[in-house]
Design goal:
Blueprint (H helix, E strand, L loop, with lengths): L1 E5 L8 H7 L4 E4 L7 H6 L5 E3 L14 E6 L2 E6 L6 H11 L5 E3 L7 E3 L5 E4 L13 E8 L2 E8 L11
Parallel strand pairs: 1-2, 2-3, 5-6, 6-8
Antiparallel strand pairs: 1-9, 4-5, 7-8, 9-10
């Protein structure tokens, strides 16, 4: 089973990521989606799970958190803006203590913490906004209830030079 994890598109999904995640068995977006991205994701994979982030409209159709049962454990998804940076990871792991992994966004910084239980995963930004180290996503592969996580990171977009 191939599950691709993205976050923080802010209205722009990097086309290299769109190509890479197309056909996933499950596509997860951990918030700060932006206009039109949900339709774009629906064309790439089925099903798609999206949770709301702090930059998504209050009336958006997505829940604040979601938990999905997968072979080998539960995957919890929450943007993570509800807590300050210094306690965010601990609080997410406490909230979803019975999950195998927790996916979050918000910081735009890629995190793969698999030493403890639950794992804490932040795919980093999948758009152009503050994509530290380059836009990217995480791929979770599940084979016979064994989970493996792999980062996919692309070269940062070069800033355009102003016309003279």
């Amino acid at each position: 089973m191939r599950i691709d994890l993205i976050a923080d598109t802010h209205g722009r999904l990097d086309p290299r990521i769109a190509e890479a995640v197309a056909g996933a068995d499950l596509l997860v977006h951990a918030g700060d989606v932006g206009a039109g991205i949900d339709e774009q994701l629906a064309a790439l994979a089925d099903p798609v799970i999206i949770v709301a982030g702090n930059n998504d409209p209050a009336d958006c159709p997505w829940p604040v958190e979601q938990v999905v049962d997968l072979p080998g454990g539960r995957l919890a998804i929450m943007h993570g803006h509800q807590w300050p940076a210094r306690t965010r990871h601990r609080r997410l792991c406490e909230r979803f203590h019975d999950a195998r992994a927790v996916v979050c966004g918000h910081s735009h910084r890629r995190v793969i913490e698999t030493d403890g239980q639950p794992w804490l995963l932040n795919p980093g930004a999948a758009g152009r906004t503050r994509a530290y180290g380059g836009p990217g996503f995480l791929r979770l592969t599940i084979i016979d209830e064994r989970w493996q996580i792999e980062p996919h990171v692309f070269e940062p977009w070069r800033a355009r030079r102003p016309r003279r």
